[in-house]
Backbone:
């Protein structure tokens, strides 16, 4: 049976590039584009696809709210891997359009935020037109170029309301656009992290270079707060690599914490820390243990290896049996 | 001289409603709409306006990245007050358009995220068209209605690409639109917090019900990390009400922390905690002390009042003078 | 076979009173007096006695160094129970001796420290003569009274160098002395805590009102120090009831910590905390889990019961099996 | 006017050796021996002496309870300096007495505890006779030797009840005794720390290599306990070198903490930490800031120097004046 992978489409998005880099999504697998992260994850929950590639964190813009929130509620899903994609923007237009002709620029609002510096210098008069994705901006221009009917952005009919698109180089090529400028991102080293999400089941085996993602909900009667949650990791020598506070949507100031830590749930130290959090939190939502994209071995606090835990457990068992 | 207040416009946005609620922006003050948070704050830095009202946190969507980032870098600005605005969405259209006629809906992406549940139930086939703000979606429809030329969205010419707008009730009224549905937000109690930002200078006096906002940058050689930063507040009995991690934009995983705590920089406990953070952080950016919108007195840890600090300081001074 | 209990003798010491209160030391058991705590514990290690009653903590003088140190090194021993004995001192003398006749007072140095206030008021001129125990002071006077040879203190021959003894009421009776004054302790509510020590083996079952005693040796390379050790207890909701720092005898400033906490090594929270300490300490010496003398149920941090741990473990096992 | 120094006498004690090493107690100063630490400190409080040298900590036996307690209550006194004295024990006897003749050994109980190993090997049959000090044991033997009347221990008349004394080499010489064995301490590197105590007033100036001693009393309603006290030091980068728990004498389990930390009360970080403790403790008793005997510069946490504090204070003052 063919494995089906959903992703935040259309083709040409950075997410589609992340899926290109996912080995299991290669030969023989089917790719299904969705118009939003939520739609891709809903299809995954419904069993329409077997995995979904979605953005989770951008080195410039931070966490991707739609993904964090869609993972934090609803039927359980788990991350089984991650992919890092360098974010390279181009300004693309139909053939014959020069930079001087550009009066309006279409792109996704996150992309627009990352090219503002360049725009202020090179196209200070250009009007910004939001689109659903960087790739859809390119697609809109490309469709017009090719004279296709009914493909002028998802929004409907008529000529596009912009002359140029900010998108990935691949999207420009895909839609037959010319590149007016390359490398127009304000931060040349920008990177987006994507995760491959699946329904719970087979878990990637520990590799020694793993990450684990959880969402922590505090108890209302819980005075110590975030400090106490972080101490559960610290007491077991566990290093945290990402912390996002996200509103629980119930009232202003009610937050949960989306956290990445180094290590695998099968590691002793992580199992014990999660047990501690399970006890003191209102809820702990486990979002998977998976190999790091950069293959960098986990930082482990002194004497917090599995062997250290095993030695300590053996000692306690001896004491409990009446030894000393 | 007339005081000038910038805000995230156009008229009819939730931000314009926040400005309506700001006493000093009443009679005799001038209001200047900007197309983005960044533009409003740039004008403030340049001295073109004297204050700027911008959104900083939404009870459903979380922190407003554009505002957090614009405050965290560039010339110093400080928050001098906050306003809470309940977020009430309506679906608005030109007269004669009924719900059954709606094929495309325009609004800002944050608003769209907050009405998805309602849309899935009542307009499952409707296409989403992103706009620059909720008010600009209403304005676009209204302009067409009134037959005005050149006002069809900021993006250019032609008929609008959507039949209905998700916006505030005030925006619908302002632009002469009919209301197709009210209270369509998925979270009925959603609230957005706005802040009035100014250039450093006169600081609001302590009221006993104040907040202070800072951005904390960790040192690279700083192992203890976030835990150690939070302990600086805890050791002085200070309560934290918001924590956002924001990428420093330099590399994946390099974060700073945007933090709100209860209290005023003129309070002893807060002065001492900020001194502690100043010492251990690479940078502490002070973003103002200002009265809480809800006038709720600060939670103060036991024995952390100004009187407690004064008594302790008097004691130390006695010791240093040779007493015991 | 007869069970043999060693104790810090001779008869009439507060330790002998503690042994009186120990049920298993009643009918059919044999009592063996030793001249020092060290001698009693050595006999226990050698198998000459089956248990030893020794003082460990006094509400006025603090920890009993000889006991703490003898337990902390050498072959392992464990505490299997504790007894609290109110410390009531009398001033006793041979018949015919009145208060006005007393020129020198014999007693153990710890007892002397606890009656100084009374002495300063009632016998300001009296000279202090140290003896090996409070009971031996009484015995010395009694032996003279009875004309027995060779019983004049352990030290040798001749007339005693004091006219009155500070001792327990029982010791005065035992040796036929008159009581010149009662209740002469400066702290009327003084209490000494005694422990019944045994070789490792059968451990008292958990009662819900237990204590556990451990000695913690820090690693030399261990910067966090005591704070980090205490956090291992705090992270599992464990309450500490005694902390004594004791020199490791290797160099000035090298300390280990003798600690009592509430709970039993068979309690989940304590097992996990001890494992944590085992990992980060150079050595953890387990000195037993035993019922509290006062039968007061253990204070347990919120959500740190065995049931809480069991629920958390079940959850982790589910996750590890591929659940979420 | 002659400066008078009290000390724990008689001549020949280790305390008298510590006083020998105190420069100000040299030429022209008067030395006054006292029979106990308490007597010496009472005389100091009464103004009968200007300073008192007393033992506070031994590398083998730990804290000296009598000193810790006498400093912790009563009229305030402060430590103004410290002296380290290596503890070298000899076995001394009258001329003509050989090791084989020794049947009973007199010494202070703390000294006896430190020579037990040697005694078990070389004089396993010897009886122990407690004396008021190591020097008084030597004095007793010496007096007999010299045929002086009335000098046979403080306790009264008659022949001494022991044949040999464990004491400092100086005490043996002083009293004309022969040395039967040298270096008989079980720990060859044993050291005792003495402190020079004075009434509050002139404080030693900071040297960069200072210690500060305080006694901390917890509030009864104070859940966090010791952990919270230690965090006040940790939050300011202060290193602790000694922690002794001492009973407050009110009830079993009620403790205060006697603490030495590195630094001077005139150091910014220490002033701030003491202020924090003053706020959260029921009482903080300051026992002085004084130069370390070993002249080792204080370990200061990163960015906790006076310059770091001054920079942070200047920054806060700028903020409070309306800067940012």
Residues:
């Amino acid at each position: 049976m063919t494995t089906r992978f959903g992703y935040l489409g259309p083709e040409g998005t950075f997410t589609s590039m992340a899926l290109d880099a996912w080995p299991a999504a290669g030969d023989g697998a089917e790719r299904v584009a969705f118009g939003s992260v939520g739609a891709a994850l809903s299809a995954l929950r419904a069993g329409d696809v077997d995995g979904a590639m979605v953005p989770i964190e951008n080195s410039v813009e931070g966490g991707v709210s739609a993904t964090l929130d869609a993972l934090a509620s609803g039927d359980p899903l788990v991350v089984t891997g991650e992919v890092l994609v360098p974010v390279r923007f181009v300004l693309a237009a139909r053939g014959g359009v020069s930079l001087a002709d550009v009066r309006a620029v279409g792109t996704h609002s996150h992309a627009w935020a990352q090219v503002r510096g360049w725009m202020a210098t090179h196209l200070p008069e250009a009007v910004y037109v939001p689109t659903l994705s960087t790739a859809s901006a390119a697609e809109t221009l490309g469709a017009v170029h090719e004279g296709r009917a009914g493909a002028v952005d998802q929004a409907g009919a008529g000529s596009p309301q912009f002359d140029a698109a900010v998108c990935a180089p691949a999207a420009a090529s895909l839609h037959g656009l010319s590149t007016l400028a390359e490398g127009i991102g304000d931060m040349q080293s920008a990177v987006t992290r994507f995760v491959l999400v699946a329904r719970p089941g087979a878990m990637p085996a520990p590799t020694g270079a793993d990450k684990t993602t959880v969402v922590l909900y505090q108890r209302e009667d819980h005075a110590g707060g975030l400090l106490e949650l972080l101490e559960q990791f610290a007491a077991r020598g566990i290093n945290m690599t990402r912390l996002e506070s996200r509103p629980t949507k119930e009232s202003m100031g009610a937050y949960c914490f989306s956290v990445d830590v180094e290590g695998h749930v099968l590691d002793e130290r992580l199992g014990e820390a999660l047990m501690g959090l399970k006890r003191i939190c209102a809820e702990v939502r486990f979002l998977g243990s998976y190999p790091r994209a950069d293959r960098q071995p986990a930082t482990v606090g002194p004497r917090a290896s599995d062997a250290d835990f095993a030695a300590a457990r053996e000692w306690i068992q001896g004491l409990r049996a009446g030894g000393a």
In short: The domain at 90-182 of chain C is CATH 3.40.190.10 (D-Maltodextrin-Binding Protein; domain 2). The radius of gyration of chain C is 23 Å. Confidence is low (pLDDT under 50) at residues 148-157 of chain C.
